[in-house]
Every structure is written in structure tokens, then in C-alpha cells.
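Self-study notes.
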Amino acid sequence: MAKSKKKRRNLWTEEEVKLIKRLFPRGKAREIVKRTGRTLATVRQKAYSMGIKTREKRLWSAKEVKLLKKLYATENTQILAEKLGRPLESVKQIAYLHGLRKKNSPIPWSKKEDALLKKLYPKQDLSDIADQLDRSVLAIAGRAHKLGISEPKRIWTKKEINTLKKLYPIKTAEEIANKLGRSVQATRLRIVKLGLRKRSYRGKM
């Protein structure tokens, strides 16, 4: 019986929904709390789920920021916003201001890195640039493409790939690039994608 009453209590009545629509946009969330007996977080969560915004300016408390820092890396942002009773965009903004990132998310590129990449890309090999920027070769190639400084895309033929596989164990990337008429950067990137490795030779007995 008690569980049934509790379940019914969690459901929002038409009157409560009307109160939210009428009062929440005017910054009167606490008045809704008084009239419905619900918590402030619950009222805000319901309003935001209905797409209703408020003029109320509400500062983040130290407790909220602490919870955000604890959960942001692994928690779904929308679910976290509902837990905090905050708009999704507000949660994203505070997370950004505190330098929070999702677990395993790529590190954003800085303006300084972009500038250095533009300076180095036409002149140096991808592996050298990757070492200087402390990023992977694939990350360098992808960023160069996004910035529009990479070479026009040219499809690799089966013949070229077979030649690359044949020569890589015994030739340098530069030599193979010259043989295929491709840039060293493009050749190195294809080597990485194919997962090619140099042969290891043992000394003769």
C-alpha cells in the first residue's frame, strides 16, 4: 500500500504541470515547491524536461561543482543535468570552465598547436611533427585534413599497396615514396594504417 502511494505521489498532476508552466518561467520555482511539496531539484528537473526555461539566476554551489567534477567523466551529461536539476547547457558550460572532459575523450587542439602544425606540415614528416606535438601520426593527419592543409585525397591502388608491403621491410619510407610518386607523409600514414613492421634480422651463426 505504501509503495503504491509513493508511486502515485511521484506522478505529476495536471495542476502541478500548470503551476510549472505558469510560475517557473517567472523565476518562482520555490513557490512551486511550497504549493506542491516537492523538492526544488525535482521541480527544476521537471521544468527542464518540459523544455521550460526560467529568468532565475542561480549560482552553482560548491556541493554542485564537487558532484559535477566527480561524475562528469563517466556520467551521461543529460542524466547528470537531471540529477543536478540544471539545464543541460548550464552543465556543459560549467564543465568547460572547470576543464572537465569525458573519459577517453580526445584532448582538444590549442591555437598554438594548430599554428605549429600549419608551419611544420608542408616541410616535415608526420612522425617528426607527431613527436614535437606529442600526438599520434593519425591525429596529425586528421587535424591537417580538418584545417585544410593536407594534400588532396588520392586513393591507393592495390598495386601501390602491394608494392608498399613488398618494399617496406627493406626500404625507407622516403625511398618508397619516391618509387610510388607519393609524398613521404602520405606514405608514412599508409604504413601506419596497414600496421607494417620492419623485419628483424639475427646475426649469422
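Second protein, same conventions, sequence then structure:
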Amino acid sequence: MRRLAMIAAAVCMVVWTVGAESVAKITSFEGNVSILKKGAADWRDAKPGSALEVGDQVYTREESFAEIRYAIGTVLRMDEKTKVTIEESSEKTIRTKSGLGSVWVNMRKLISSGKQFEVATPTAVAAIRGTVFDFSYTPDSATYVNVFEGKVAVGPSDSLKKQLDQEKKKEQKKETVKKEHIEVPGPEEIPGPYEVSLEQWLTIVAGQKISVRKDGKFAREKMDMAAVQKEKFVKKNLELDKELMKEKVK
């Protein structure tokens, strides 16, 4: 995965306060960070304490970084050139959609609210509680999840479910043709460590990683923790997490 160097700019910090309609707030950022409010036509610069509601988008430009804190206690940090959307906030679930780029999620200080926190890409969804993980979506439409603490449930996104269902129907039609009319070549072998399609939820535990390709095939492997911790975005977040754990839950 790509990791580009970040140049520190002016850092803005705010104290968390929950507004009546706010799902989350931008609590700190570096560089050039923009917000597109739901229904708005233009992006605007983020400000200390910028409130986020369902439908709002946040984008970190090159050499930039942002931290978002949710009302339920979850902390999500964005690497440079990353876009997220606050997609849903219901009685049971808060979901954030992540576009291209990388995010870091820390749920160790999650306030007991009974809600599940999810991060989704076009190919996969990570549903978690009380854990720490790194979540990336790359230009080749692949999703990567590295779990540092706790465990994460990873499953197919809605769009991937539809894609896999369509492919399954096509395969069923081919089998029918094969039996009734002609011979159809069998399925090709899946190269490398990739397993069958991600059709059901899988549990990924600390020290493991999973990658999900755009065709739904996935690989679950052991993470090289020593190597990953040297990556700039990961190293930065591990340091910030140390300070986070010193804070009192409000």
C-alpha cells in the first residue's frame, strides 16, 4: 500500500461538544481539509470544531490529515488524499463510507451507546466495537483492513453482494447450458492466496489483515506488525493513540 510523506502544517485542536444534530466533529487537522455539506454545491474549508451530519463529506488534500470524533466516542483519522462520507446514523448503526485513501479507526474509548460503528468501501464493510484498525481503499478498487487490537467483522458491501449475486446467476445459466447443450470450460483457478468470494462475514483478529478485490475474492493473512508500524500513517496514529488513551471519557 502506498504511504506518502506528510508535511506538518498548522494544527487546529478543539474540545469535543455534541451538538443537537451533530453526528461527529472535526477535532484536529493539518494542511488543506475541505467539507461538502449535504445538499451544498461547493466545498468549504474545514474549521476547528466543524460539525458533521449525515450526508456530509470530508476530503484531505495532498500532505494533509484530519481527525474526526463521533458522538459515540469513536475516533477516525484520515490520511492525505482521502475522502469519507457520514452515510448513516440510526438507533443501531453509524456508518461512514470511505473513498480512495486510508483511515485509522480507534474504538477503545467507545461510549456505551448500543450502536455499531461501520466503515464501508464499494467492496467491503468493517463492523467493529472496541478495537483499533487501519482501513484503505485503493485505485484498483481493492479494500485492505489491518487489525491492531481487538477484532473486526468484515463482510461484502451492498454493491459487492449485488455483483456476486449476478455472477452466481450467470454461472447457473452456464451450468444449465453445459448440461443441456454444450460443454462449457470450468472455472479458472484463483491465483495467489486469494480464496473464494467474500459472501459472508469474517472475523479478523489482532495481528491479521484481509484484502478484498473488486471481484470479491479475498485473502486473509498474518500481518507483519513490525514492518507495518514503520509506515508513516500508522506510526503517526500509534503516537496519537497514546495521547488519546490519557484523556478521560466525557
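Instructor comment on the second fold: Residues 1-20, 182-191 have pLDDT under 50 and may be disordered.
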